[in-house]
Amino acid sequence: MTPLPSPTRAVRPKQLVALLLAFVMTAATGGVLVAGLVMPAVGAVGTVATASSDLFEDLPGELAIPQPSQQSVMLAADGSPMATFYLENRIVVGLDQISEHVQHAVVAVEDRRFYNHKGIDPEGMLRAAANNVAGGQLEGASTLTQQYVKNVLIEAGRVSGDDEAIKTATETSLGRKLREARLAVGLEEQVGKDDILEGYLNIAQFGPSVWGVEAGARHYFNKSAADLGIGESALLAGITQSPARHDPVAHPDNAERRRNEVLRDMLREEYITQEEYDEAVAVPVPDMLDVQNTPNGCDAAGIAAYFCEYVVKDLMNNESWGKDRAERSQMLMRGGLTIHTTLDLAKQQTAYDSVVASVPVNDPSGIKMAMSSVEPGTGKIVAMVQNTNYGEASEADPSAMQLNLNVGTSHGGGRGFQSGSSFKVFTLIEWLETGHSLGDLVSATKKTYPRASWNISCAPEYKADYNNATNLEGIPTSSKMSVLDATRQSINLTFLDMANQMDMCDIVGNAASMGLKQGNGEPLMPNPAAVLGTNTVTPLDQANAFATLAAGGTYCTPVAVTKVTDRAGNDVPVPPSSCTKVLEPEVVNGVNYALQQVVSARGTGKNAVLPGRPAAGKTGTANDETHAWFVGYTPQLAGAVWMGHSQGDKSMMYTTINGRYNTWVFGGSYPAQTWQRYMTRALDGVPVERFAQPGSRQLYGDRVALPAVVGRSVDEARAILRDHGFDVTVADPVASTWPPGTVAETDPGPGVRARPGSTVALVPSSGPAPAPAEPSPAAPPPAEAAPAAPPNPA
């Protein structure tokens, strides 16, 4: 909007009165006022008016009317209102949506000759001028058109942040009245009476914090302006003279007196009958009211308040909304926007109920829990909850906070939380991408990895010795384990050995390609400890990263807003969402298969099993059990649950949570149980979908035929087998026809196809077996035994 010029010449009060009187007389005699107006001489003031007529050349003749500020509303996915935002609580409506009773009431009390004058009321202004010449000021006698002009100038100053313009539009001076009069006449030449009345009813103040008749009707009567009756219309029309003094809530007696004045004016103008008047004045003002306040901001969104704030931050980060946050905020608070979001209210309630069932609000433990849920393949955020109330902490609600535990600093959250073993999935992805398999056998006991053994191509400075690593969640049953078993049981040492065979930058790169970053927005660190989850990440990013696996390897940026329209229904740019294929289906199928074993009776995620529905996921527990996670998914829905202390890395060991004492807290306990409760209810009635089956290469790898090493020396055979990727053990020698010290046989035997990494036993030869001993000469037959002696006689 182009700023309106203001008079630049100093004018004495009597000159202004003369000009105003001349202005009035011109209007009264039907003269047309245009730019460059020459005022006629009229009676005693004619000379002054003629001499001062050129002053009108400096006055604006056309009124630039900005769109009045209007509240914006945020909607859930089903169209239900969640929150309202405004600097002025106003809802703009057309005149056909405003009761005729309101129109009549306003005209009767504010400007009874509205439909007869041309912007100013000569009769009223002459009377007021005669009473105010001595004081050099002019008050009263403003037409509805002039009041509309004044409100437009004030609103223009508010919208532009021009305090000087507001001061000029509200000052008590003849100059202001003259300016309003000039603009009012010009406005009536541009638009019709209905347009002016509609504009006034939408811009005027109808309460201490209410602008426009529609917002006033909803606030005081809980109904639309179209449905207002006679008494209600009179009450509203009376407020505009002094919104604070005539506020029906704070000052019902004042409001009732003013209402009755309006009703008398309506009766006088024959807008109502005597019977209607009597009926309306008989109702006490308090009995008329059904006050409904319109909360401003996300506080009113209840359990969706944190999601609401996420949306606001998302919009404030959107450069297409303005050059800076202040301009973008003006658009939200004044623009009359309708913001359509992705939040599924049913899933939101289910997520909240699931979280507080595990860790209630204000649990004495001080432990917090947060959950985000995302739709795979779209990135739509369908739920975002935590076990705290939105707001400032108080004695009655000590855990209340505005910090969003689900997101990072860019969206009103913190730096995130250590991911623990949930990060192992990204090592598993790289393992399969580099041609390994779930059946590969890897060390489950190796604890020490010297600095030089690590490959960190993108950041060599992150290389470090890794000593005395331990297993936390799972206990290995042998010195080597298959990758599948290690995943099921979350064996730390196996995943360290896997990562040590690859480039850490590729592992971290997989996570980054799936949207994972630190909560402060910084890239993930590729240090060796990252394998076990030392990077601090957020529940939303975790849920969305795992949703990539549910979507067959397609990563979608998280999206909270699907559409924004302005007051006219035109689309407004929203933060874009994009989907990109980041993983090959074969790899995804292998990872999904492995993570389904986690969510099984034998896995660390056994408490997350969904009866009758396949699910995949990963537990995670940070050192000293400071943070615990479960991140899981089905083909249709993904979710991440975090649990811990929101400030600092404080252990949850030996803690009573929700009335139950816990020696240990793992990702497979409270977080997995919470996820299971949510998913069971959120997917109720949703058809069961199964994951695609993995290929044999991902399950078993590319098997290699064992080379023939029988007859070779043990050292030579060992070297050949190791070159083919096999581990070697040497058994006890056996006799054979092969020379001593050579290999007599192998287990498995030559030509058998086996997995690289599996163990082959070499059985050395001890040489031919010794020849059998010659039998000794036959011994003479034994002498015949003598007959037995007869028995002695009795």
What features would you describe in this structure?
It is built from 25 helices and 26 strands. The protein is an alpha+beta fold and 794 residues long. A 5-stranded antiparallel β-sheet has the order 7-6-19-18-17, sandwiched between helices. Strands 2-1-5-15 form a 4-stranded mixed β-sheet. Strands 23-26-24 form a 3-stranded mixed β-sheet, with helices on one face. Helix 1 runs parallel beside helix 7 and helix 16 packs antiparallel against helix 23 (670-682). The N and C termini lie far apart (151 Å). Residues 1-11, 27-53 and 783-794 have low confidence and may be disordered. Keywords: Carboxypeptidase, Cell shape, Cell wall biogenesis/degradation, Glycosyltransferase, Hydrolase, Multifunctional enzyme, Peptidoglycan synthesis, Protease, Transferase. Pfam families: PASTA, Transgly, Transpeptidase. In the C-terminal section; belongs to the transpeptidase family. In the N-terminal section; belongs to the glycosyltransferase 51 family. Residues 733-794 are annotated as: Disordered.
